[in-house]
Amino acid sequence: MNAPQTDAPTVSRISAEANVYDYPKIGKKSKAAAGKHGVYHAMKMAAPNKAVPTLLKMNQHGGIDCPSCAWPEPSQNDLNIVEFCENGAKAVAEETAPETATPEFWAKYSVTELKDKTDFWLGHQGRITEPLLYDRSSGDDHYRPISWEKAFSLIKDQLKSLDDPNQAVFYTSGRASNEAAYAFQLLARRLGTNNLPDCGNLCHESTGVALSETLGLGKGSATMKDLETTDLFISVGQNPGTNHPRSLTTFHKMKENGGKMIAINPMPEVGLMAFEEPQSVKGGLGISEKLADEYVQVRLDGDRALFQQLNRELIRRDAIDHVFIEKFTSGFDEVKEHLMSLDERELERGSGISAAQVSRMADMVEKAGSVVVAWTLGVTQHKDAVFTIREMVNFLLLTGNIGKPGAGTAPFRGHSNVQGNRTVGIWEKMPEAFLKNLEDYFGFPVPREHGLDSVDSLKQIRDGGNKFFMSLGGNLVRVASDTTACQEGMMAQEMTVHLSTKPNGSHAYPGEKSLILPVLSRTDVDMKKSGPQKITVENSAGVVSASIGKRKANLGYNLRSEVDIICSIGRETFGDDFWQDLIDDYGNIRNAIEGTIPGFERYNERIEKPGGFYLPNGPRERVFKTSTDRAQFSVNYTNVKELPEGYFLLSTVRSHDQFNSTIYGLDDRYRGVYSGRRVVFVNPEDLAARGLQDGDLVDIVSVWEDGERRAPSFRCVAYDHAKDCVSVYMPEGNVLVPLDSASERSNTPVYKSVLVRFEPVGKRYM
Ligand SMILES: Nc1nc2c(c(=O)[nH]1)N[C@H]1C(S)=C(S)[C@@H](COP(=O)(O)OP(=O)(O)OC[C@H]3O[C@@H](n4cnc5c(=O)[nH]c(N)nc54)[C@H](O)[C@@H]3O)O[C@H]1N2
Ligand SMILES: Nc1nc2c(c(=O)[nH]1)N[C@H]1C(S)=C(S)[C@@H](COP(=O)(O)OP(=O)(O)OC[C@H]3O[C@@H](n4cnc5c(=O)[nH]c(N)nc54)[C@H](O)[C@@H]3O)O[C@H]1N2
Ligand SMILES: [Mo]
User: Which residue windows are coiled coil (predicted)?
Assistant: First the structure.
């Protein structure tokens, strides 16, 4: 395959058949995030699919919960008429697009041909309309339609044939509702395994581990109100303008209330620097406002060193909350001693941030009566992420910023219900109390041995110990690390089963037998014996609320709800009576959740209240369920990454035109990249130092103990990026991440600091 080397093609040339090479052009970068342009783009996306009425119901009481990110809804009094963002609109447009991947589509393209297609192309084929079977033993290289009954019976045979239930893996992506997720964990545990990995393992696992041990709860504590009224908002490793766009409205309110912001990021993301709030007067006029008051261009994985610099400075100034430390915490003295013993120059080298800038940050902290620390993947997806988060907690404890108005932890979650999935049992190591409750409620023996998380499941799949893989949404083959090993491992499974809305890359790597079971999506009407069904979700702030689909457009297709499919498999395989009750009325699933998980009292009743209800949150009340019943300070070590001559650290990020592996389009206007995705953002001085120029094509090669991995042909983009560090988009960069490279304790793939070098392969093009 020849890489393009000269001209600058137009969007239309990014055709269906473009698989490996695309043609990025560098153009104008937005100066501010969201605003009018955001709403304009949203409407443009939704209008052709007649999805505007759906949009107007989004995040309103009695409407649907946005299927995109997990950003909390404002309180009911503050709801805007349009409570959605550009990316929520894209998510809805994607679900409601009129295209369909009918049996004719699957007959036209063989599995071998599908392997060469990008997720952009696959997703744009539209909604899947029929259940499908691929059977390698038949010699036919296509997926063919199959009846639901036949599909369930094949799954039953496969599950019954396993020598050991731990040869099965049940993966969940965070869009699934509480009801579907609960049914799914019930199916796995009924079979006898806790192998329930989820996308949360790839995402905020480090957050869960660090917060559980320091604060006694693996979730954030700040409420929407805290975010709006805080004096100082510190954003670490996130790109909210793209990934949580509705947060811009919250930032606007925070700023109006006199709040300040510090943004810590190797890239000055547009959505951190300036914004236009479409629902304000200024925003309506297209006038942008400054967002970050202090931008801190940290090195990749330099945040732990940075927070240690800051914590030391605060201790040195005695700008700490002695009363809080005395009353609520444990371990302060050791931490103080450790921090003061660290070498200043070493910390500066680790973070890349000068003492002068740290001092400015400390000034802002000193002035602030309340501080929120918010973080996302720029923090969680590193080798020592857990320790970085613990150091950020040290900061909040030093300054008494937990459990008071305007303060707290704010890990912005990813998928719209990834947090809810965890709460209702999608976790390989659910606590004993839950497993016992489940056993008592349903009356079957529930396994106690911990299951496998995503990375360990993939290792079992890679190494030949697994036979059955089932996926509730998601696209694990594409979003996991070591794409190639993952593809081969999946093809060696006896059976793979995907509950999906649209074709995706994982379907192209089927097991011996593979089923694609097409599901109703959140916007679709879901009619059951007891009437139209609601589902429920939990957002990043721990609020549980209901969502009900209204669209009837897909009724003509042979789709079923996720709950229906999962419970039908349970019914057919195990013959228990309870499965059918769960299908007929999802209220019965909520009753079971209420009966097995604390905090869900009067579940069915409370979701009827506009805005839903809050789950209990200890840290918010300064109740810390840790080993000492106090909030824990922790000693964290900093090891500065030494890069061999010529090497970079590489991070993989999202463009403004995708939702994980769902690629809406090929433009990232916030970073000025159009019509293509194979770009690598590099500091211009770093390019010059390696004899490269903006526009050069390079292969990116990562180095790991077991050898090298290569991602071919990326266009260098000169960009204001922290030095010695570069970024590419996910999932294009996933081939570079070794599966064995995972975070300490949380086992999250190290997606954001991969050691790489460049090999120039082509001439400059514009
Ligand atoms: N539109 C849209 N919305 C989404 C998603 C989507 O794909 N599209 N995905 C959803 C999901 S599942 C999730 S988990 C979230 C993800 O939300 P984000 O975490 O915002 O996602 P990324 O694009 O990975 O961006 C990571 C950011 O961290 C920065 N970063 C990288 N490494 C470091 C570091 O070492 N230190 C610091 N301080 N910063 C660093 C990067 O420059 C980038 O700005 O968004 C959710 N929302
Ligand atoms: N390199 C790199 N890799 C990463 C990351 C990174 O930052 N860098 N981030 C990681 C993170 S944070 C996450 S969360 C994972 C995401 O991993 P996943 O959640 O596994 O992947 P998605 O791309 O979000 O899943 C998209 C697919 O879900 C299906 N789908 C969409 N809607 C529905 C629905 O309503 N029901 C069902 N059943 N299916 C549906 C569609 O078929 C679609 O193709 O990726 C991880 N991978
Ligand atoms: Mo995520």
Answer: none
Question: pLDDT band for position 645 (50/70/90)?
Answer: very high
Structure confidence at residue 33 (pLDDT): 83
Output the domain CATH number for residue 685.
2.40.40.20
The arrangement of strands across the sheet holding 535-538 comes to: 535-538, 543-547, 613-614
Q: How far apart are CA 226 and CA 236, in angstroms?
A: 17
- Segment 482-520, tens digit of pLDDT: 999 999 999 999 999 999 999 999 999 999 999 999 999
Atom of ligand 1 nearest to the CA of 418: 12
Asked, for residue 570, whether it belongs to a domain, the answer is: yes
Which of these ranges, 4-13, 66-75, 638-647, has the smallest mean pLDDT? Answer: 4-13
Measured from the Cα of 377, ligand 1's closest atom is 19
Reduce the DSSP state of residue 676 to 3 states and report it: coil
Strands (E), 59-156: 100-101, 127-128, 132-135, 144-145
373 in a structural domain: no
Taking Cα atoms as reference points, which of 356, 238, 381, 390 lies closest to residue 301? 381
Task: Answer yes or no: is the C-beta of 203 below 6 A from any ligand 2 atom.
Answer: yes
Residue 132 has a CB neighbour count (10 Å cut-off) of 25
Kindly state whether residues 464 and 563 are assigned to the same domain. yes
User: 66 CA to middle of ligand 2, Å?
Assistant: 15
* Phi, psi of 71, deg, nearest 5: -60, 135
Q: What is the value of pTM for the model shown? A: 0.94
Nearest residue CA, atom 34 of ligand 2? 521
The answer to whether 245 touches 32, Cβ cutoff 8 Å, is no
- Pure H helices in 531-602: 562-574, 578-584, 586-596
Q: Are 224 and 75 in contact (CB under 8 A)?
A: yes
Same domain, residue pair 757 and 663 = yes
pLDDT-based confidence at residue 629 (cuts at 50, 70, 90):
very high
Ligand 1 proximity of 239 Cβ (cutoff 6 Å): yes
296 belongs to a structural domain: no
Find out whether the beta carbon of 497 lies less than 6 Å from any atom of ligand 2.
no
Average model confidence (pLDDT) across the chain: 91
Q: Which domain holds residue 739?
A: 16-27+647-762
Distances (CA, A) of 36 to 43, 271, 278, 380: 11, 14, 5, 32
Domains held by the chain: number: 2
Q: Which residue owns the Cα nearest ligand 2 atom 36?
A: 473
How high is the pLDDT of residue 611? 87
State the pLDDT confidence band at 284, using cuts at 50, 70 and 90: low
Q: Among the atoms of ligand 2, which is closest to the Cα of residue 734?
A: 1
Q: Are residues 464 and 568 in the same domain?
A: yes
Looking at residue 657, the DSSP 8-state letter turns out to be T
Based on C-alpha coordinates, what's the Rg of the chain? 25
Name the residue at shortest CA distance from atom 12 of ligand 1. 414
What CATH number is associated with residue 479?
Answer: 3.40.50.740
